[in-house]
What we know:
The chain folds into two domains: 2-61 and 350-389, Urease, subunit C, domain 1, CATH 2.30.40; 64-343, Metal-dependent hydrolases (TIM Barrel, Alpha-Beta Barrel), CATH 3.20.20. The chain is built from 14 helices and 16 strands. It has helices at residues 77-84, 94-103, 106-122, 138-149, 171-186, 204-216, 233-239, 253-263, 275-281, 288-294, 314-324, 329-336, 338-343, 370-373; strands at residues 2-12, 23-32, 35-41, 50-61, 63-65, 125-128, 130-131, 155-160, 192-196, 220-225, 244-247, 270-273, 298-300, 360-363, 380-385, 388-389.
Amino acid sequence: MSILVSNIAQLVTLDPADPERQVREDAALVIDEGRIAWVGDNAEAPAADAHLDAQGAAVIPGFVDSHSHLVFAGDRVDEFEARMAGRSYTAGGIRTTVAATREASDDELNARLQHLVAQARAQGTTTMEVKSGYGLTVAHEARALRLARAVTTETTFLGAHVVPAEYAHDREAYVDLVCGDMLAECAPLARFIDVFIDSGAFTVDEARRILLAGRDAALELRVHAGQLAADGGVALAVELGAASVDHCTFLTDDDVELLAESARSTAETVATLLPLVEFSTKQPYPNARRLLDAGASLALATDCNPGSNYSSSMPLVIALAVRELSMTPFEALAAATRGGARALRRTDIGHLGVGARGDVVILDAPDYRHLAYRAGVPLVREVVQGGVVVPGAPSRSPRSAEG
Ligand code: NIG
Ligand code: FE
């Protein structure tokens, strides 16, 4: 089954194999058997089994959201309101969600998860990483990963999210559990292991132990670091060759240099910025320019979770990155697609080069820069995921309004 997408006014391919032509005009593309099979001028478009007319719109790769926590119950809207009134974010709120999540049935958790993934997809996200981390027992962490695996291959074991209340007086025993029975049960269900390094969560030494145990269990590594302070987590992530270090709001000069060096190496550690967290916690935004100018590899993701940010909107991430992180619209779009793919160590997503997965978003706009320019407007008109047109997609208008 092949699909021709024609009449694309502006096609953002981000094809790593064609660095000179990341953005093409008057283009078309063909998806065959779920993969990009042809990209070229609209005038030369071949025939296909099915046809999507972009009607003068811009077309971009589906977003790769490389950081989310979607398996949970309840919400923390009161905590959000209190933060907007001036209270600080702390890791302690995670325990509220852990209690609600343990109480919930599999069906309740699954229904919420499916709904959140569908909402993200309607906003153009075609790949999502999903973490555990609100169970914090062997059975509850494994349950979260089992549910997550049904919606994505990009699952992350985050037993080291916080020390749960029942281990508050024996954190070493909890770290033993995470590295022992919990890891043994969860490793077959996950691709990555992650640790939240923070004064309210885990120390760098605890994180090293947990990540090394994960690596021994054949998991790839990710780290939460620098959310509330420069905490040494970036150096650990780079030292251990983590795929990504996420938040990076507070960084030392040495951290920036280490990330830049790692971007020049074969096993880069991507710095993943999560500006919706700063939006939703009233923290200062991370300094993306400092990282980009140093040569670090950057991704943008949502971190959708009930505490520090409950938005799954990658278009809003892009708008914030342009407005508050001083990224150009192109840098922001690239970080939200190919950058996310790099943070997941995937080369087959995040771009529209021939051979890539057929994850294509048709915008309701003639130019990708409208994603930042028209913040908050539903500009995702059609989503194709793995070569399949997502039914009942979002804001379908007969024509791109300005096309
Ligand atoms: O990435 N920082 C740690 N974990 C999440 C927050 C989780 C929560 O507050 O429930 C984050 O921001
Ligand atoms: Fe997170």
